Amino acid sequence: MLHSNQGLGSQYTTMGPVRVRLTGVARTDGEGKPLPSVTAPTVAEASSALERMARVVGADAVLKPSTDYRAAALAAGPLGSLTHIVVTASGTAVAYNAVESEKSDASDGEAEDEQPPAA
Asked: In 66-100, which positions are buried (b, 16+ CB within 10 angstroms) versus exposed (e)?
């Protein structure tokens, strides 16, 4: 579903919502300090994935991006615990309109037609 927002003074077309969800498991030591992990998703990774997803569907940018980070304990013990992490990112994919470039191309073409013929 495409919506034109030119009436609002904007130069883009809304392509629709985009959403990305990343999940992973993080471990903590016995004192509750998180251990380094490459499987635990971050907000930055989710934001980057959202931008890539928008580009895949043909968008130029994402408006009003938002993220949600949630962590829930899965298991706990004397040597450490597991935490399930879910990061969700969402926004509105938009494509910029090419109105300005078309107007400048048309004005260049008119200028060429108005030149006097060579003698």
From this structure: ebeeeeeeeeeeeeebebebebbbbbbbbbebeee
